[in-house]
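Amino Acid Chain and Its Fold in Token Form
===========================================
What this section holds: a protein sequence and its matching fold, both as plain text.
Structure line: whole-number tokens from a learned vocabulary of local backbone shapes, matched to residues.
Purpose: to set a sequence beside its fold so the mapping can be learned.
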Amino acid sequence: MLRQDGLKNLDMLQTFYQRVSESLNMGGNYLILLTHDVYTVPYRATDGEIQKDASDEEFSYILCSICPVKLTPKELSYRLTENRFHTTQGSIVSAPELGFLFPAFDDRAANIYGALYYMKNATENHQEFIDAVFHVEPPMPAAAQKEIFQAILAETLREDCSLEVVQAVHEHLRERIEQHKESKEPEQLLLSQREMGAVLLECGVSTEHVQAFSATVEAHFGTDAQLMPANVIDKKQFVIRTPDLVIKVDPERSDLIETRVIDGSRYILIPADTGVEVNGVSVKMG
């Protein structure tokens, strides 16, 4: 209703503001900003060309921003009428920490069954706000998706979960992310449970372990789960950790790392022909 009447119904607005203020706890004062606008969707021809002047579709939406109101640092001021110094303190509106766009904009059209939800801090989703406004369970945060995905790989792949396999999975997903970015497709890149299984098979994982992976993914993410590659890997770095050291590698050169058994001990090998520095000092490798 708020979107349909362009935020002109004062009673509906008051109800919304009251519902938010009674439920949302930000640990202090905050400002509720609610705006409405209409976006003219450019027409896309069959060859992919955008024709801005040929559009006949409009996207009407509301945007809600929750902005903390914080006190400014105290300042010293002088009141001439009183001939005295005083300390003054004002308030300032900070950048939004929470908000949503409704409806969602999917496939270049309004999706009234979805909304885009924004959190500045991914660990604070303010469930009380979601319950009061949306009455639904929110999607799993990206950090939690990544943590669970990593745990599922280690648990279900078992002996297949080698450095080479994890390396191949990371590289495959990173390439898919880059290809999707270059294609400039507006829709998010999502991989179904079946597609993720195909990735694992391609990376050398046995069918038995792929089936175990799929079943565990279904148990954690749902029957029709779709994973966002950008949420389950860090495309900007490739990190190897042991109890005593950390190795960080440019993801595009993760192929430089290999494992080998030498005299009965397992080693992680890294080429070190040129450009080696130790604590900022160039050294020669003998």
